[in-house]
């Protein structure tokens, strides 16, 4: 059977790092509060010349280099983002052009923080359905542009960045030992749409708007939703938490990550945590965390890796893959 196999990955971060202490003169907060409630210590913030497209392009180029490929080898780009450069055209098409790629096709996918997990599951279907052979999956965000910098309950939580993964069609035996995407489960429920949203849009206010979140409400649902969808993915693949080599969750809050891992019985040393370095980068958080754990030698070829995310909508989902 056809499997979608990881051939390379990459990441890109804005030059500017903003530490928790940098907020202290702006809003009533403290490094201590932010670290204790979220685990975040710093985040990267895009300069005017750094955009979702430019960061996405840089992450894509890094992923192509690690795969030993060029844009000519790619036939589909899927960009997960909620902060596109323009309302249209799709920012993925702009990245395609920046890469000098004038063949194949590209589209954006919007599932907020779950975007990258949705995009990997979507790329897998395009590959297994025969519509694409090599897919560049990117998560790129500039949430700093939609933050209300006077709202301490949200502005300290988010950061900018991009990560990318290249998936290629390969032969598998249909077994759990195959390399590639092995199982995926996706969910959404719009009943929660007002708990985490942006208060603007082209069809309503005609403005970009600002992020609004009932943090406590999101927190309340997060662990249950995350663990449910992961258990469904384990069931589909016929594995248990003990079989995993690495758990790479969406990086929103260290307390949510710890509680989810504990409930699932995933050992602490198997959990990749980068929320301290990047804050919540929405659709970029999972590929940024992957990039850190691949670069430092933790995630290696053949390892069983679980990706998970939950975000605005709500949307949530999990992907199991063998690296
Ligand atoms: N500094 C100091 N105090 C603050 C800050 C701040 N930056 N922000 C809020 N507070 C205050 C609040 O005003 C509140 O004060 P009060 O008790 O006088 O009303 C107090 O701190 C406690 O606030 P809570 O909201 O109860 O704090 P909580 O422990 O829930 O932490 C947080 C807040 C970090 C937002 C948490 O609820 C959370 O992480 N929620 C989930 C966010 C998430 O996972 N998002 C994922 C999806 S993101 C996406 O899809 C884009």
For the sheet with most strands, the description reads:
5 strands, mixed
Shape: globular
The radius of gyration is 18 Å
Please count the helical segments.
9
> Biggest sheet: strands side by side, in what order?
1-7-6-4-5
| Helical content band | 25-40%
Q: Sketch the topology as an H/E string, one letter per element.
A: EEHEHEHEHEHEEEEHEHHHEE
Low-confidence stretches: none
Q: Return the domain count.
A: 2
Distance between the amino and carboxyl termini: 17 Å
CATH architecture of the largest domain: 3-Layer(aba) Sandwich
**Proportion of β residues?**
25-35%
For the record, the CATH class of the largest domain is: Alpha Beta
Instruction: Give the CATH H-level superfamily of the largest domain.
Output: Thiolase/Chalcone synthase
Judged by helices, strands and strand pairing, the structural class is alpha/beta
Which hetero compounds are present in the coordinates?
Answer: acetyl coenzyme *A
Description:
The chain has 323 residues and is α/β, with parallel strands linked by helices. The protein has two domains: 2-171, Thiolase/Chalcone synthase (Peroxisomal Thiolase, Chain A, domain 1, 3-Layer(aba) Sandwich); 180-322, Thiolase/Chalcone synthase (Peroxisomal Thiolase, Chain A, domain 1, 3-Layer(aba) Sandwich), CATH 3.40.47.10. It has nine helices and 13 strands. A hairpin with a 3-residue loop joins strand 12 and strand 13 (315-322). The two termini are 17 Å apart. The protein binds acetyl coenzyme *A. Residues 29, 33-34, 37-38, 112-113, 152-153, 156, 196, 215-216, 218-219, 222, 252-253, 256, 280, 282, 311-312 line the site of acetyl coenzyme *A.
């Amino acid at each position: 059977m056809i499997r979608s196999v990881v051939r390379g990955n990459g990441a890109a971060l804005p030059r500017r790092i903003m530490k928790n202490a940098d907020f202290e003169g702006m809003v009533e907060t403290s490094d201590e509060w932010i670290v204790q409630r979220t685990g975040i210590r710093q985040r990267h913030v895009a300069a005017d010349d750094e955009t979702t497209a430019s960061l996405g392009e840089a992450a894509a180029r890094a992923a192509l280099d690690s795969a030993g490929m060029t844009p000519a080898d790619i036939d589909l780009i899927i960009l997960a983002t909620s902060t596109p450069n323009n309302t249209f055209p799709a920012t993925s098409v702009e990245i395609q052009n920046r890469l000098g790629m004038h063949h194949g096709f590209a589209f954006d996918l919007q599932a907020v923080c779950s975007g990258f997990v949705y995009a990997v599951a979507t790329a897998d279907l395009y590959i297994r359905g025969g519509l694409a052979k090599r897919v560049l999956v990117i998560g790129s965000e500039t949430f700093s542009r939609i933050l209300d910098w006077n709202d301490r309950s949200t502005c300290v939580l988010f950061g900018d960045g991009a990560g990318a993964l290249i998936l290629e069609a390969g032969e598998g035996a249909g077994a759990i030992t195959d390399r590639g995407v092995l199982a995926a489960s996706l969910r959404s429920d719009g009943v929660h749409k007002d708990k985490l949203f942006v208060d603007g849009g082209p069809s309503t206010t005609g403005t970009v708007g600002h992020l609004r979140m009932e943090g406590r409400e999101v927190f309340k649902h997060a662990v249950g939703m995350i663990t449910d969808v992961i258990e469904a993915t384990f069931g589909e693949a016929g594995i248990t938490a003990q079989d995993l080599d690495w758990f790479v969750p969406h990086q929103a809050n260290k307390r949510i990550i710890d509680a989810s891992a504990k409930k699932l019985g995933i050992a602490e040393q198997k959990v990749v945590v980068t929320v301290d370095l990047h804050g919540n980068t929405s659709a970029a958080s999972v590929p940024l965390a992957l990039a850190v754990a691949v670069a430092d030698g933790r995630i290696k070829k053949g390892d069983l890796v679980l990706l998970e995310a939950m975000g605005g909508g709500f949307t949530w989902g999990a992907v199991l893959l063998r690296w």
